[in-house]
Every structure is written in structure tokens, then in C-alpha cells.
Amino acid sequence: MTQVTIIHNPRCSKSRQTLALLEEKACDIQIIEYLKTPLTKLEINGILEKLAITPRELMRTKEDEYKQQGLADVLDDEVLIQAMVDTPKLIERPIVLANDKAAIGRPPENVLTIL
């Protein structure tokens, strides 16, 4: 049985669909509700490394908080990562970690590539 972790927001339809897909695949699932248990800088860096993307690519750039914090003008990756630590709502979701890999569940089927 594949052990997976889902960085999850139960209010997000894509996150719920991705969780249902993982349950269908009979995975051993650890659920992290990142709005209740925010990710650390170290965890975000690990996810970025596994996804091989930049911090901005992991951010929800249409969120009001992104605009209010003026993050579109920020060039320093460390500042962007800290913004995600301080404001977890900015993190794209859901993120699934399995087999030392990561995938963003948009669309939910994306996660099948790492199982």
C-alpha cells in the first residue's frame, strides 16, 4: 500500500476530489490541513524541490492576500516562501507527496503520476 501525504483544504473542491481519488486507490493517507497546521519553511522548501518549481509557481497569485502583500513585485524567493509560511492560504492546493515525489492535484489526476 502506497503511503501518501496530502496537503489538503477540505473547502476546496479539487482538494476533495484528489483525496477521493487517493482513497479509491487504497492508499495509506496522511492528511495535513495546512490552514490549521501551517507548513514550515523547511517543508515548503522540500515541496518546491520535489516539484522542481519556483516559490511563485506554488502560490495562488489571484488571492487577495497576494495582492494586499504586494507579492507580485517581490523578486526574493525567501520572502515569497516566508509569505506562504505566514499566510498559508497563498499555497496552491492540493499537494500530494508519495514515493519521495510531489504533485499538485490540479487536475486531481496529476497525482497518479507519483503513486
The number of helical runs is: 4
Number of domains: 2
* Main sheet specs: 4 strands, mixed
Give the end-to-end Cα distance, rounded to a whole number of Å: 10 Å
Task: Please trace the helix and strand order, writing H or E for each element.
Answer: EHEHHHEE
Structural class: alpha+beta
Mean pLDDT: 96
Number of strands: 4
- Sheet with most strands: strand arrangement: 2-1-3-4
What spatial form do the alpha-carbon principal axes imply? globular
Radius of gyration, CA atoms, in whole angstroms: 14 Å
Q: In terms of per-residue confidence, which ranges show pLDDT below 50 for 5 or more consecutive residues?
A: none
Q: Strand content of the residues, in percent?
A: 15-25%
Percent of residues in helices? 25-40%
In short:
With 115 residues, the chain is α+β, with helices and mostly antiparallel strands.
Question: Can you give keywords for this protein?
Answer:
115 residues; alpha+beta; four-stranded mixed β-sheet; 4 strands; 17% strand; globular
Structure in words:
- With 115 residues, this protein is an alpha+beta fold.
- The protein folds into two domains: 1-34 and 93-115, no CATH class; 39-90, no CATH class.
- The chain has helices at 13-24, 41-51, 64-68, 77-86; strands spanning 3-8, 28-33, 95-98, 101-104.
- The chain has a four-stranded mixed beta sheet.
- β1, α1 and β2 (28-33) form a beta-alpha-beta unit.
- The longest helix is centred in the N-terminal third of the chain and has 12 residues, at 13-24.
- The protein is globular, with a radius of gyration of 14 Å.
- It starts with a strand and ends in an 11-residue tail after the last strand.
- The model has no long low-confidence stretch (mean pLDDT 96).
